[in-house]
Amino acid sequence: MIQIGVVGAGYWGPNLVRNFNEISDANIKFIADKLPGRREFIQEKFPEIQVVEDADIIINDNDISMVVIATPVSSHFDLAEKSLQAGKHVFIEKPFVNSVEKGEALLEIAEKKSLKIGVGHIFTFHPAIEHIHDFINTTEGFKIKYFVSNRANLRPPKTGHDVVWDLAVHDFSIINYLFNEFPVSVYTVACDCSCKGLNDMAVIILKYPNNKKAIVHVNWHTPNKIRKFELYGSEWSIFFDDMAEQKVQMFDEGIDTRIGADDKSSAKFEYKPGVVLKPEIRNAQPLFEECRSFVDHIRNGGPYRNNGLQGLWAVKMCEFAKESARQGKEVFFG
Questions:
Q1: Where are the domains of the chain?
Q2: Would you say residue 117 has pLDDT above 90?
Q3: 158 versus 8: which is more confidently predicted?
C-alpha cells in the first residue's frame, strides 16, 4: 500500500484527493493546507483522512512515500525539493515549477535519489487524445504536417502568471505527446488586451523537427470555454473538440473531381469529404487514469507519460514563449 500525503486543498487539490483515494493500492494519510477554511472544507468532504496545517508533517512522516503538491506554482519548488530530499516521490500539478532552472534542479535530485516525478498534464490522459495518438502511430504512412489549437476561458481570480502559463501549457503537453518530440523554436505575439498587467491573449507558433509546426491561440476573454484543435497530416485531418458530444472526427483526403480535368470534361466539378470517421471513444476519467498511472509507475517502474522531463519542457516552452513576445522575434531552444 502506497501511503500518500497531499499538500494543497484549494481549487484542484480536492479532485486529486478524490482520485488518488479511489486507487485500491494507495492510501491518503494526510492532507495539508495553511488556510483554516480549506481545512474545514476538506475535512468535511473526507472525514476519514487526517487534515493538518503544516506540510512538514507530511514530508517528515516515514510512512509516506509519495507527496502530491497542488499549491500555487510559486511554492512548487520548495515543497518538491524538501519532499525529494526526504526520499519521497512527488506528483506536482501543472505547471511543474515557475522556471527552467528550478525544474532542472528537481530532476537532478530525483535522478540521484532514484525517485519519480509526475506532473499533472491531464489532457495527455484524455481518452479522445489517446485515441488520436494511437491513430497517428498505427496508421501506415501517416505523417504530421501541422497542428492548430484554440483554447479560451475566463481569467483565474488570483494569478501571478499570464495566459500562456495558465492555458497554453495544456496545449504544449498535448503537442509534445502527439508529436512525440520537442520543439526547435517558438515565436509569440501576445498582449494585455484588458490592461490588467498580464498578457491575456497570445498566439504561439512552434517549429518542430522535419518541418512540423504548431499554432496555439489562447485567451482569457470569454466564459464560453473553448478546447479544440485540428491536426493535419498526410491523407488525414483530425478534429478534436472537448466541448462537443462527438469529440473526435477524422477526414481522409476526400474527393475532388476538378483534379486532372481537361478542357473537354463535361462532368460536374465538385469536391467533398470521402471517408469520415467518428470513432467511439472509451469511457474513462482522465484524472483518475493519470493518478493511477503514476501510482503504477512508482510500484512497477517503466515509463510514465507525464514525467519530470515532460513537465520541464512545458515550463521551458512557457518561458521561451514569453521571451519571444518580449523580444518580438523567434527564439530557439538550446
A1: 2-115, 124-284+314-332
A2: yes
A3: 8
Q: Report in angstroms the alpha-carbon separations of 313 from 197, 226, 333.
A: 26, 24, 10
C-alpha cell at 157: 481570480
Write the pLDDT tens digit of every residue in 260-303: 555 555 555 555 567 889 999 999 999 999 999 999 999 999 99
Is-above-0.90 flag for pTM? yes
C-alpha 139/C-alpha 85 separation (Å) is 44
Over residues 220-238, mean pLDDT:
95
- The answer to whether 94 touches 299, Cβ cutoff 8 Å, is no
State which CATH number among 3.40.930.10, 1.10.10.10, 3.30.450.30, 3.30.360.10 fits the domain covering 124-284+314-332: 3.30.360.10
Report the alpha-carbon distance of residue 19 to residue 130 in Å, rounded: 20
Q: Is 220 exposed, middle or buried (0-12, 13-18, 19+ CB in 10 A)?
A: buried
